[in-house]
Specification:
Blueprint lengths: L5 H22 L2 E12 L3 E3 L5 E3 L2 H12 L2 H8 L2 H4 L10 H8 L1 E4 L6 E7 L2 H22 L3 H33 L1 H8 L4 H32 L4 H8 L12 H33 L7 H108 L2 H9 L2 E7 L7 E4 L1 H26 L6 H8 L3 E6 L3 H4 L3 H7 L1 H17 L7 E6 L6 H14 L4 E5 L7 H4 L8 H7 L3 H4 L1 E2 L5 E4 L8 H5 L2 H13 L2 E5 L8 H8 L2 E7 L5 H13 L4 E9 L28 H15 L12 H23 L11
Parallel strand pairs: 8-15, 9-13, 9-14, 10-12, 10-13, 14-15
Antiparallel strand pairs: 1-5, 1-6, 1-7, 2-3, 4-5, 11-12
Length: about 775
């Protein structure tokens, strides 16, 4: 944690040391001017068990005097001295008393009652002047007033009471004059001061009510005027019931109507009788030309003509009566409208009168308010003055003559033991000491910030972070290089960065010893997020396996953002997507490299359905065919948390390697990646730590190779691939009389001790692959 936060610690230390350097440059050496004095006073005594007098409260008395030395009264009197008030120590725009109270230190001795008054400052002579001035002022105040405190306080209280009584008499006279001039206001205020307020409030409520009623009356009047042409609708709107029209008032029309109705009834009866006679004649088989029938037809026509004439007269009489009724309704509507207009005019007059009354009351209330406030001010001042006089009377009665006599018998002696002088001043803060303090404060601040940063940091920083977050072993680590800046391909990086090559060989060893016999042909390399370095890791691991004599193929199964072609500086026109989508033969798209036994299958053109292609039967058949051609197949897949492609491939792979990058991979994200892989049944072999910086404990080869437990007869030799390693283990086990067994993971302590041996073992294989004639192995080996 301290190593990762070294820059924070260094910056904080340098900054605080610089601040301290500027501080000591401005202030320089700080001197402490000190004056010592002894205050002796007769204190209450009592008899002890052995009959001797024992003084009480000596220590408390000394502490009390120490506080009095720093009191405002003493400091104010000290600052009245011209030589002290003009001292350059006091800031010009600051409160001098406050500054002096905070800067002056008064302490009581641990083993005695000696008071030490000190002041720290770079100007030692000015500091001595101020300290001596405070001590002299304290001594003078005690000598002048120390023995007459109770008597003087009583006299002060009596004088204050007399002055306050004079002020009270004046206030009472002023109140009497005010009440004489404004008696009504006083009476109203005694009643709660609510009369004028109630009047104003009542007028306001009445005004609001009249305004609402006037608005309603205006609306009713305007609506009635709009319905003037419709008397019946206006009457219904106003909710009025018009008196029924009495048709009997028109006697002649009524008689005509009754006579016409009777005549109409008689004609109808006569017409029915004639028609019945005609029907009887026709039933007697007489024809329409029969004279009797003809006579009846003529009678029917004559009766019908008379009936029509009666109906016309009847309709005329009814129209005359209806017209008279409508005229009566119109006359009633005019009366209603006139009544509404009269009511509206009356309400307008009432509203104007209410507004005038409210304005007058409001003006009167505003005129009364200042006088009422003046009355309350006088009454409040009188009440305060009476309370002050009562308190002073109580205070005067508390100062009894016995207390004054007892105080007169008390004697206070102040003896100055040492006066402050530049010769006796001590160094309070030197330049080296101040710089050391600032240096330590900077270091402590930096350590605190580094600890806080480590507490809040969620990124992978070390092996412990990886194992604690994922629960998986760390099977290898690759060092931090400058491949990005150099833009070198994987093979060039292998040749130029020996630490990277050695770490890749160690990783190859760990993988070989971690896989069971006959397993580990198809290995998946993935990461939690983009940018963790999975493509760089898979390329270096592939080169290490190829140089060990294993036929190795690296497949770029990242069909969304391929990187293997760029890592090996190869073209990406054809590749895995052509095989899966277009059934292109494998031999036409595979790319050999400058490294023997190493081929590369790039991703090819980016398809629109990468997950479906990787989950197809064609991809499974391709892996089955490639296992017959190669000893190792490394599949570079997209990040686990970004898309589902990695989980699809993990089902087909024999083991999965998860790449985590130092200072980049989030521990929570790495844990989620492992959970998603294991949820589909993937066998996660372990974690590869990428981009490991030097100097944090990874050592030579950055080796953490977790191997398999093998017998004591195993002899380090040439790497013959997974099958060769398995055979060596079986031979070793048989020589020790033990049955062959499946490999299991070694504990970290064992792996750490064997990492160098594993690297040496595969180094022989790398050398032999480069020049077999120079590294022949005798049959005995």
């Amino acid at each position: 944690m301290l190593w990762r936060g070294r820059w924070i610690i260094l910056i904080c230390t340098v900054v605080l040391t610089g601040i301290g350097f500027k501080y000591v440059q401005q202030r320089g050496t700080v001197w402490r001017a000190t004056s010592r004095l002894y205050v002796d006073a007769s204190s209450p005594s009592m008899l002890s068990a052995d009959g001797n007098l024992v003084s009480m409260g000596s220590r408390n008395y000394a502490n009390t005097q120490a506080e009095l030395l720093r009191s405002t009264k003493v400091l104010d009197q000290t600052l009245l001295r011209p030589e002290i008030a003009a001292s350059p120590l006091f800031p010009e725009a600051a409160n001098k008393v406050s500054w002096l109270m905070s800067a002056l230190k008064v302490s009581v001795g641990i083993k005695d009652d000696i008071l030490s008054v000190s002041l720290d400052d770079a100007e030692v002579e000015e500091a001595c002047l101020i300290v001596n001035g405070v001590v002299d002022t304290f001594r003078r105040l005690h000598s002048e007033k120390g023995n007459t405190r109770a008597r003087e306080l009583k006299a002060i209280a009596v004088s204050g009471r007399d002055k306050e009584q004079v002020a009270l008499d004046a206030l009472q006279g002023e109140l009497i004059e005010f009440l004489s001039a404004n008696g009504s206001i006083a009476l109203d205020d005694r009643a709660g001061g609510t009369y004028a307020t109630r009047q104003l409030d009542s007028a306001f409520q009445e005004l609001r009510k009249l305004e609402a009623d006037f608005q309603i009356a205006t609306t009713r009047l305007e609506t009635a005027r709009s319905l003037e042409s419709e008397p019946r609708l206006m009457r219904d709107f106003l909710g009025e019931t018009a008196p029924a029209y009495d048709r009997k008032s028109d006697r002649i029309a009524e008689l005509q109507l009754n006579d016409l109705m009777r005549r109409s009834t008689e004609l109808a009866d006569e017409l029915r009788a004639v028609r019945r006679n005609r029907i009887e004649l026709l039933e007697q088989k007489r024809t329409a030309e029969n004279p009797s029938v003809v006579v009846l037809d003529k009678q029917i026509a004559d009766l019908e003509s008379q009936q029509d004439s009666v109906r016309l007269e009847l309709s005329a009489v009814e129209d005359r009566l209806n017209s008279n009724e409508q005229a009566a309704e119109a006359l009633y509507a005019q009366k209603l409208l006139a009544n509404l207009e009269r009511q509206h005019a009356d309400m307008a007059l009432r509203l104007d009168s209410s507004r005038t009354l409210y304005t007058d009351l409001e003006t009167a209330a505003k005129a009364v308010a200042p006088k009422r406030a003046e009355l309350r001010r006088l009454e409040t001042r009188i009440a305060q003055s009476e309370a002050i006089i009562e308190g002073l009377n109580k205070e005067i009665s508390d100062y009894s003559q016995a207390d004054i006599n007892e105080e007169d018998r008390s004697k206070i002696t102040i003896e100055i033991l040492d006066r402050a002088s530049p010769d006796t001043a001590k160094v309070a803060a030197s330049v080296p000491k101040t710089l050391a303090i600032f240096f330590l404060l900077g270091g402590l601040l930096g350590c605190g910030l580094a600890w806080l940063r480590a507490l809040l940091d969620r990124k992978v920083r070390s092996e412990e972070d990886v194992t604690r977050a994922t629960g998986l072993p760390l099977i290898g680590a690759l060092p931090r290089t400058k491949l990005r800046e150099q833009k070198a391909d994987a093979i060039q990086a292998w040749d130029e960065h020996h630490a990277l090559a050695e770490a890749a060989r160690t990783l190859r060893t760990a993988i070989s010893f971690s896989m069971p016999k006959g397993k580990g042909t198809v290995l998946q390399v993935t990461s939690a997020d983009k940018g963790d370095g999975k493509s760089t890791t898979s390329s270096q691991l592939a080169i290490a396996m190829a140089q060990a004599g294993q036929r190795t193929l690296i497949i770029d199964a990242d069909l969304r953002s391929p990187r293997v072609a760029k890592v090996f500086h190869l073209g990406n026109e054809d590749g895995l997507s052509n095989i899966l989508a277009q059934d292109v033969p494998f031999d036409q798209v595979v790319r050999p490299t400058r490294i023997d036994n190493l081929d590369v299958l790039t991703s090819g053109p980016i398809p629109i359905n990468p997950a479906e292609l990787l989950n197809s039967e064609a991809f499974g058949a391709l892996l089955d065919d490639l296992q017959l051609r190669y000893d190792r197949i490394l599949i570079d897949t997209p990040p686990v948390l970004a898309v589902s492609d990695a989980r699809v491939v993990a089902v087909r792979a024999e083991a999965t390697l998860l790449v985590a990058r130092v200072d980049k991979t989030n521990r929570k994200r790495a844990e989620s990646a492992v959970e998603r892989l294991t949820s589909v049944g993937a066998r996660v072999l372990g974690v590869i730590l990428n981009d490991v910086p030097r100097g944090i404990g990874y050592g030579y080869g950055y080796g953490y190779g977790y191997g398999s437990r093998y017998g004591y007869g195993d002899t380090p030799g040439i790497d013959l691939g997974a099958a060769g390693v398995g055979a060596a283990r079986r031979n070793g086990a048989q020589r020790n009389g033990a049955a062959p067994h499946e490999p299991t993971a070694l504990p970290p302590s064992t792996v750490a001790s064997r990492s160098t041996t594993d690297a040496s073992t595969f180094a022989i294989a790398d050398a032999r692959a480069a020049d077999p004639s120079q590294h022949a192995v005798p049959p005995s080996s």
